[in-house]
Amino acid sequence: MARDRRDKYYWKAKEDGFRSRAAYKLFQINNKHHIINEGDIVVDLGAAPGGWCEVAKELSGARVVGVDLRRISPIEGVETIVGDITSDRTISKIFDMVGEAGADVVICDAAPNLSGNWSYDHARSIDLTRSALGCAKKILKPGGHFVVKVFQGDMFKDFLEEVKDNFSYTHSYSPKASRSQSAEIYVIGKKFLTAPVRRGDVFEVDITELGSSGDGAVLIDEFVVFVKGVQLGDHVKIRINDVKPNFAFAEVIN
């Protein structure tokens, strides 16, 4: 409580009528990375007590669904689900609310109950963020956006790589509203990929076409992959090194 009394975001949340100071983290993330736009359907995972739901509703003006193991006190214009985000039953309930097309944005500011053992707490944080990512991959529309809170530690880099494998653009960001002593950081994934290839995939291909820039162009499961440094008729082994929503880039490997 003493810490809260010295916290300007704590008092700002009270003055502005938000349920928690975390509301300003989402405002700052959105101002920097433009995650939530007007009209977006947003799903908030681990949403209790509802501070991010309030902000998401203000930013999108459209449907917002909050999901948590705990019941969330009613928020005007926000629908809520009591459920486990790893459960197929919960996923089904989310689709019932957002429609079969899925959500435009998935956000998650959840954190595990802290024990004080840093290695243990970091591992539990990563496990929770992986659950959020797994849920997002099921319910996001192609091209959708994702934000999740992570505690920094030795497993952070591997998790960041997982997000990179599923989104065209990935960033990490620490908003000013995060407490200075906190190890939390937010991972932002933009433009969810539904392509049949991922970074690091290896294929053997025949170069039968050239793109407008002179790079080789091949189709993998009807998805265009551009290959530098090849000629028509080459038979090469390639590794995917970058994936975009509608095409990918690859390099030749020996």
TrEMBL record:
Locations listed in the record: Cytoplasm
Enzyme Commission code(s) on record? 2.1.1.166
User: Which residues does the record give as S-adenosyl-L-methionine binding sites?
Assistant: G50, W52, D68, D84, D109
| Record PROSITE patterns | TRAM (PS50926)
Q: What is this protein called?
A: Ribosomal RNA large subunit methyltransferase E
Instruction: Name the catalysed reactions.
Output: uridine(2552) in 23S rRNA + S-adenosyl-L-methionine = 2'-O-methyluridine(2552) in 23S rRNA + S-adenosyl-L-homocysteine + H(+)
Q: Which UniProt keywords apply?
A: Cytoplasm, Methyltransferase, rRNA processing, S-adenosyl-L-methionine, Transferase
Record's InterPro entries? NA-bd_OB-fold, RNA_methyltr_RlmE, RNA_MeTrfase_FtsJ_dom, rRNA-MeTfrase_E, SAM-dependent_MTases_sf, TRAM_dom
